[in-house]
From TrEMBL:
The gene is ATP8. PANTHER family: ATP SYNTHASE PROTEIN 8. It is found in: Mitochondrion membrane. Pfam families: ATP-synt_8. It comes from Myiagra hebetior. InterPro entries: ATP8_metazoa, ATPase_protein_8. The chain crosses the membrane at residues 6-24. It is a single-pass membrane protein. This is ATP synthase complex subunit 8. GO terms for molecular function: proton transmembrane transporter activity. One of its GO terms (biological process) is proton motive force-driven ATP synthesis. The lineage of its organism: Eukaryota, Metazoa, Chordata, Craniata, Vertebrata.
């Protein structure tokens, strides 16, 4: 069964992950967010309990 031979596919997967983690990921992490999160306090809305007709 040739589809179970991991020889060529393992090398391709390993190469792509090394490329991602060594080249692409640091470039993406170095980007500065244009909209940084602010320190807003979260406001909670007042809720009223639901009156069930069968209680």
């Amino acid at each position: 069964m040739p589809q179970l031979n991991p020889n060529p596919w393992f090398f391709i997967m390993l190469t792509s992950w090394i490329t991602y983690s060594m080249i692409i990921q640091p470039k993406l992490l170095s980007l500065i967010s244009m909209n940084p999160p602010s320190n807003k306090t979260s406001s909670t809305t007042p809720t009223t309990p639901w009156t069930w007709p069968w209680t």
